[in-house]
Amino acid sequence: MPAVVLTDIAERPLEQALADLQTLIDQHGHVIVVCSGAVPAAVRRRLYTIRALLETDRIALFRPPLPPLSVAVLVRQLRQLASCDLSPGVLASAGRLLTHYLHCGAVLGSVARLDRVPVGLTSHAKSWLPGSQFGVLAHPEPRLLRIDPEAALPGPDFGTWLLVAKGQLHSDWVTGTLAPSWNVSGVREATLPAESADWWGTPRLTEFCAFLPDLSVLYQLVASVRRSLCHWCGIDVIGDRCVFCSATPPPPDEHRRRGARHALTQGAAGTPAAGIPASGALSPVPARPRSPMRTYGS
Prior knowledge:
With 298 residues, the protein is of the alpha+beta class. It folds into three domains: 1-63, no CATH class; 103-215, Hypothetical Protein Tm841, Chain: A,domain 3 (2-Layer Sandwich); 226-261, no CATH class. Helix content is 34%, strand content 16%. It is built from nine helices and ten strands. The strands form three sheets. Strands 5-4-3-8-6-7 form a six-stranded mixed beta sheet, with helices on both faces. A hairpin with a 3-residue loop joins strand 4 (134-139) and strand 5 (143-146). Helix 1 (14-28) packs across helix 2 (41-54) and helix 3 runs antiparallel to helix 4. The protein is globular. Residues 249-298 are annotated as: Disordered.
């Protein structure tokens, strides 16, 4: 499925950005916006402002805690799943699920400005030595080590492919050492994302990401998770938070009270208590409440 790049959304007039997002909603029904944590704060504020002004619960904003290359991999996986029979809420929720199956990091020429992964004083001092290189695992468990013949990073225990994007640092450690130790099925190369230098604190890097490439495996992972209806906007989701309206499930007692009130309402309207309409009738649809998300900023 194609993706739309929201180019210069923070620099363009607000009215134009509002019109662009409204057009996407009119064309597709729901919009899932995925952005890197390296994007400027002005972009994040503009996205929240647009969603608040449109007063819609059909825009999901997702900022996964991943480096830029891994965000691109995750977007591609969501595009693959968009061709399957998944509802918008399940598809948007799948982003958080698939994040757990990504192993990503980089080889850096310096960690002096790295603030995404804890850096010890010794590593910080060694980063000033000429020719130093560091292997960094950002997700799922932060790790940092100086590259030497014994250096190794913990990898996935399932079959993956490895995507590699080279910056200004020329290093064969990823393809020559890391890939064999992770038992990847293959290696692919990609262009380094523009935000990578800001995310890692240096342009002297080679970024990598191990991922599941098979659509059937991705679909099986998502389809095997229990689904539920958001009690606020009524959309089908997986997980404990609705990605469209940001509502969390009510406490168990409140959930039972809501169910009892719903059953009483249906009984008063002459509808069977189980919510199953008579032949040719339509189930009563409660009015959708306004979205609770009216937050500005990140």
